[in-house]
Amino acid sequence: MDVYSILTSYPDYNPTDTTTKQGAPMIFPEWTTANLALYAALTLLSVGMGAGEALGSTLMKYSKFRPQKGWHPRAGMFTLYFLPIVATVIAALPYLPSASLVQVIVLTTLITHFGKRCLEVLFLHKYSGPIDPFTTLAIASFYTLVAGFLSYLNRWPLPAPDGLFWLGLFLFIFGETANFVHHKILADLRGASSEYILPRGGWFDYVVCPHYLFEIVAWLGILLLSRHLFALIALLGMAGYLLARSRRTLTWYRQKFPNFPSNRKAILPFLF
Ligand SMILES: NC(=O)c1ccc[n+]([C@@H]2O[C@H](COP(=O)([O-])OP(=O)(O)OC[C@H]3O[C@@H](n4cnc5c(N)ncnc54)[C@H](OP(=O)(O)O)[C@@H]3O)[C@@H](O)[C@H]2O)c1
Questions:
Q1: What does the pLDDT read at residue 68?
Q2: How does pLDDT run across 129-144, given as a tens digit for each residue?
Q3: Which tens digit of pLDDT belongs to each residue from 192-240?
Q4: Mutate which of 186, 195, 200, 219 to test ligand 1's pocket (most atoms within 8 Å of Cβ)?
């Protein structure tokens, strides 16, 4: 038995048969008992992340919510973004030599996302303190699971790019670019200090976490490119987490800055 079929099993992939599930807007696994259990567990994990952050029970301890002591932030952050790249490449090895255009683009987006984050951690972000070791390991595990499993599922790609696929590529590029622009604004505002500054410029004039919003846009792009059910589960989990974290960040800013603009929202301008 193929070792990967323990994880999940898809019908035989036939790139010329557009009536198969691979031709559908979403690609689903076969609903065997093992896959039902696997996808239920992945959904629970994903939803649990946002719920934990919202309730405070598993608040991730980095940045504004960091502990007094911990790992060096650059080393911790680099680790948690680099491991997913390793997982992505390893999971792609079996199909890499004969990869289709769709497979190459999906892989490229995953590696670009985590590669961009590695470069930002090394050369752009200005950190003011440590990151909690457990948080580092938890985030590293989640990202590695997401990237590795999406790369593995990329063995069963869309048979050919369709309109949603190209929209996904656009959203990915737009989301990553806008996300970078807002990271740069934060780094420039901080300058040589290690203080927290009331953010302004770009969409910071409307929300406290525009970089989170554009991260969600980029992952929506990856969903439209991959089209696997797991990409939707991962997107919902990340969006839930980032929504919850942005609300906590808004509360934090309101407490820290007495003159905080009352109309500024958490992540969605004018709405949330
Ligand atoms: N896909 C996911 O599930 C997921 C989850 C979390 C984050 N992310 C993404 O990862 C990226 C970074 O997230 P993050 O939570 O680390 O962002 P963040 O807390 O806003 O921090 C980003 C950088 O900006 C600095 N910074 C933040 N607020 C500042 C302020 N008011 N003044 C000066 N410097 C400030 C931080 O320094 P300090 O370290 O000193 O605070 C850090 O260097 C985002 O694009 C986010 O979308 C993705």
A1: 87
A2: 999 999 999 999 999 9
A3: 899 999 999 999 999 999 999 999 999 999 999 999 999 999 999 999 9
A4: 186
- pLDDT for residue 59: 78
* DSSP string covering 70-136: -B-HHHHHHHHHHHHHHHHHHHHTTTGGG--HHHHHHHHHHHHHHHHHHHHHHHT----S-B-HHHH
Whether residue 141 lies inside any domain: the answer is yes
Q: Is 182 in the pocket of ligand 1 (CB under 6 A)?
A: no
Q: Which domain holds residue 249?
A: 45-256
Whether 6 is in a domain gets the answer no
- C-beta of 53 in contact with ligand 1 (< 6 A): no
